[in-house]
Amino acid sequence: MRPALIEVSGDSKAEKLAALAALAEISPQARALGTLRETMVFSVGNPEASIMLIGEAPGYEEEQQREPFVGPAGQKLTGILTAMGLKRSDVYISNICKFRPATAGSQGTSNRAPTDVEMAACLPFILTEIAIIAPKVIIALGASACKGLGIGDGVTRLRGKFHEVQGIPTMVTHHPSYILREERIDGGLRAKREVWEDMLKVMEKTGMPISEKQRG
Fold first, then answer.
1. What DSSP state is assigned to residue 65?
2. Dist. CA 97–CA 182, nearest whole Å
3. What is the mean pLDDT of the chain?
4. What's the CA gap between 208 and 165, in Å, rounded?
5. What CATH number is associated with residue 122?
6. Are 133 and 54 in contact (CB under 8 A)?
7. Do 137 and 172 form a contact (C-beta atoms < 8 A)?
């Protein structure tokens, strides 16, 4: 069963998001777990965006800058958006989990994926964000986002077609960090192609113009 949305006050989307961010900072359910780090990293982008991107959790760079997708994976995501003809300020970028998952000992720059329990603790926030933004399309980036949103397991099986989250068409695709890993193995050509195929479908769904170069 889906958790209830969080009630927030405000006359505009921006005001409602600011109120939600203040509540996320407190987030007693998430903080009580003891497995997440202290710094809350909220979302960034255009409250009026047609496209909302959802990843898994902040990493080291995101925790330092308190902004999602600013590390190497974030740079890869920015490149994908640029190829689509978009800027980061055109879209809304968020994560399932609002805190960087902790590891044992001295964590340094190491990161890990959030657990089901950690994602569940933060789920009311992302669902409320979706309700506030009301995008035309959601892009679920990677396995954690896919599972946390209740779409299912297995990005390879689920990518390339639209699912539904809160009545909104949702495209599952690879997380940018997956592309980075694949680039180190074989240049990442297959992963890049699959992500781009998914983005073309998002562009079509939202009515964005697509050039012959983009289709090619």
1. H
2. 24
3. 96
4. 21
5. 3.40.470.10
6. no
7. no
Report the number of distinct structural domains present in the chain.
1
Is pLDDT of 43 > 80?
yes
Domain hosting 149: range is: 21-215
6 belongs to a structural domain:
no
- Tens-digit pLDDT profile for residues 101-133: 999 888 899 999 999 999 999 999 999 999 999
Q: Let me know if residue 187 belongs to a domain.
A: yes
Q: Is residue 40 part of a domain?
A: yes
Q: Is residue 137 part of a domain?
A: yes
* Cβ neighbourhood burial of 193 (10 Å; 0-12, 13-18, 19+): exposed
Sequential DSSP letters for 155-182: HHHHTTSEEEETTEEEEEE--HHHHHHH
CB-neighbour burial class of residue 13 (10 A; exposed 0-12, middle 13-18, buried 19+): middle
Give the span between the Cα atoms of 198 and 168, in whole angstroms. Answer: 16
Quick check: 177 and 73 in contact, CB under 8 A? yes
User: How far apart, in whole angstroms, are the C-alpha atoms of residue 92 and residue 47?
Assistant: 7
